[in-house]
Each structure stands twice: as structure tokens, then as C-alpha cells.
């Protein structure tokens, strides 16, 4: 049996690497009553053990740290028993620590991030008790340290600037030593400025123009350095003039304080103006209508007319298309002819239309009295009627209607009688013989001194048009006259036709003279002039409109498109599109105003049988 002493107290050295220790020896007994021999071994090995006369054991070369001592007792029969205990030796001197004398310095490019990895030589650390453990800390914190190959240390997440590294060495006795050194990371700005241009610009220009001014917001520029940037160059400036056609690239270049350059670009596209204006029919060139009387056996008949013309704001000659062409063959009756003018962009004007009316020649009437009414003297002695001979009235047509006999008839005295005898052919084309019979008693014939009364005498016509306008086509309604006698007055003098082309700056006086059956006259006169005005320009003023209605019809609804002007809609108009027009000529007038200046658009609506 063997008994070891308890674990020995901690022994502290003040220098050296080994200690000389004394501790109680182990005791052993045996049944043979012979004291066994005791031997000592150590872990780690290398410790020498010596017996003393007092029973203590001397141990030399005991290393710093914990040493396990094993005592083995052997009796005479080589029977062994063992026990163990520990001996702890510490030192109170700190480790020897030496930081790198030259701090690690590296460059960090901004394009690679904001932190980098830095390696530096492993600090030198020694201790009496063996190699100390090293720990690393940084100011500012956040750096991670790793022991690397080649006796170096790797530091990661090192920021730009100077970082203080503190190294702490700890030996087995928890004695510590520390040292510090600096890691310097120099930032190198190699990141160009971020330049953001405005989006691509598309801008349209009006038709007929080739260029325009374009404006935009300047680019926005930011830099990782946070410092000011400088505009190096630009190809164009906001407010420059750009021409239509292919897109133009606008380029801006900026630089930061490190000389890094950033650029951006965008496209400026100028769209040519789209022509949305249809051609305009030259006033006075659209025929008002063609009426032709032909023999029934000659149908179909070729009909010709002057071709209408149109102009376009593109200065190109518009394409002219028609439902019928001048010289075409036409059948009897009414045929509408429509002209369409289109420009190269597809804008079309269909405002020129007229009627071609081929009418079978009406029957011939022979011996129809004409001119002044038949004034027949009658005996005044009690007679109230007289037999008047005026025929025979004959025709190659069929008698359709009559108010009196075709040869002679009885007429009441002191009264004007209207005689109407109507003949028609097989196509219901008719001709009328009409005249008046006035039976006056011989002794009571009145003296007529009253002139006819003129109606529809036009007011002065003053056409004011913009400077540079072409000659103007002007027409008016033919005046008529009536007489108290009931006898139709005749037009004895007319110095101008009811329509004509008037040159710019021209003026003339139109005169009509009417005469009744006994020579009394009435006078109608008005002036016609064409002068320039600063009033608005008028567009699409309709040409004269002719509508043909069947015999017996007195009116028709006529429509047209309202003209416009550079000053906007009309100020007033005399008739509305869609109004009902009676037989004859009616002047339609549009007034356009711009301030005190006035421009007039007028045309004739003509309704005929």
C-alpha cells in the first residue's frame, strides 16, 4: 500500500524557467513488513527527485506550470503500487512583447469598396513560462485578425485612415504585456462621378418650319468623395437650336477632384411638322353648274367645263380627282360632279361640287304673244267683257294645261288677265306661253305716271381681303321690278353681268334701269370694289353654289361648311348651312373681325328649275 502527499501548493518563481522543490515523500507498507522502495516520475518528464534524511523529497528542474508526480512502491516480491499528486509552479514576470516597428501602409481604391485586408509581421512574444498567447484589438473596433502563414497576421475590414492595433500577450500564469502600432490605409479615388442626364427629348415642329429651340434641365452629378465636381465639356447647351431630321446626341462630361471623369448623353429628336391642312379650292374656279338643253335623240351628250383648281400650304400642286371628267358623256337628267383635291400627306378637300343637268329641249310654241301686255280697247257702252283674238297658239308638244283658249277668249273689262298655256313633250319637259291681256274701255283708259318698284337691289359691295390675295370672284342677285299697273316691267339697261372677276384695287358702278309698259323708268345702282385690309385671313370660303330643282318646286335646303379665319370663327353670317333657299340668287355673307379690322367672305346660292 502506498500513500502520496496531497497536491502541493502553488510555488511562484521570480526568475528562471525551473524550480527546486521540497515536498513530503510518499509512504508505503507491505505485509512482509519490509519497507517497499519508492521511485518518482514526472509528467512532463525531466524532473529529478532525491530522498532526504527527513523523509522529504527534493525535486529539481521542475518546469513552470503543472507537473504530475507519480510515486511507485515496489516490495520484495516486485509487487508494485502507485499514486500521484501535482506540483504547480508559476512565475510573476510578464511576457516579453515587441510590436512591428514599421506600421503597415496600403492604398485602397474607391472602386473596390470602403475597407480592405492588411497583413503585417507577427509581433515577437517570449516568456519564461513558454510561448505566450497573443490577442489583437483595434481602434476603431470591427477589425478581424487571423494568424497567417509566414509568421504574419492578416487584418480584415480595415477602413481608410489610421487604425491603432493593440496586441496583448498572456503567459500561462496570466501575466500580460501589450504593445500598439498603426495600420494606415490611404484612400485612392478612382471612381468617376455619377452623371445623370435628362431623358431623351422628342419635340415636334409645325409644318413648314425646319428647326426649333430645345431646352432641358442640367444633369445631376454626385461623387463618392462628396466633393465638388467640375463640368469639363458639353456638346450642346440648353436653349440651342436643333434642326429636324436625324436624332442628335447631347453629351456632358464632368470630373471630380481626383481627375476621374464621368459622362452621360441623351438624344434630341425634332419631328417634322405634320400637315393637317387640306388643299383650298381657288375661289371662282369651281363651276356653279352646267345646264344644257339637247335634242332627245342626241343623248348621251358630251359636256365640258373649265377645270377647278386648288392650292396647298405645302406649295405642291394637289392631286385632282373627280367623279366625272370634263368631256364625259352624260345622260338626260341631273348628275352631281364632285371634285376632290388631296395633298401628299393625305389631306383632302371635297368642297367643289356642281350639277350637270341635261334637259331635253322643250316643245316649240308658235304664235305666243310676247313683250308688253295686250292692251285691248273695248266699247264702254255697257259692256263688261270683250272677246280678244290672240291665236292660234300651236306647239309640237302636247297641251298640258291652260288658263284660256289657245286662239281667243272672253276677258273682263278693266282687269289685267294672265294667260298661261303649257305644252310638254313625252319626257315631261315643258314650255309655257304666258302673256297678259288688259281690256280697257275706250273712254276710261287711265294715265300711268308711276314708275316701277325695284326689289332686291344690292347694297354697295366692298370686298376687303388680305394683301397679296388673288383677284376676287364677285356676284350679286339680279334685281327685279314690279309695277302698280300689274304689268311686268322690263329690264332695259344693265351695264354689268351678275358675276365677274374683280382685280385688287378696282371699283365700278353697277346700274340697272327698268321700264314699265307706258315708259315709266326705275333705277337701281350700287358700287363694287376690292381693297386690302389688315383683317384676318379667311380659309375655305365657299364658291357659288348652284342647285337645280324640278319644275314646280320653289325651294331647297342647301348646306356648306362654315369658313374659318386666322382670328377664329366668324362674327356673323347672313344664312346658316342647311337653310331653305327660294328660286333665284341669294347672297350669303360671313363677317370675320380682328379688332376693328374686318374681312368678308360671300358667295351666291343659286336655285334654278
Q: Would you write up a description of this structure?
A:
With 609 residues, the chain is an all-beta fold. The protein has six domains: 2-91, Immunoglobulin-like; 96-188, Immunoglobulins (Immunoglobulin-like, Sandwich); 194-271, Sandwich (Immunoglobulin-like); 280-360, Sandwich (Immunoglobulin-like), CATH 2.60.40; 365-444, Immunoglobulin-like (Sandwich), CATH 2.60.40; 453-608, no CATH class. 0% of the residues lie in helices and 54% in strands. The strands form 21 sheets. A four-stranded mixed sheet has the order 2-9-8-5, with no helix packed on it. Strands 11-18-17-14 form a four-stranded mixed sheet, with no helix packed on it. Strands 20-26-25-23 form a four-stranded mixed sheet, with no helix packed on it. A hairpin with a 5-residue loop joins strand 49 and strand 50. The chain starts with a strand and ends with a strand. The mean pLDDT is 84.
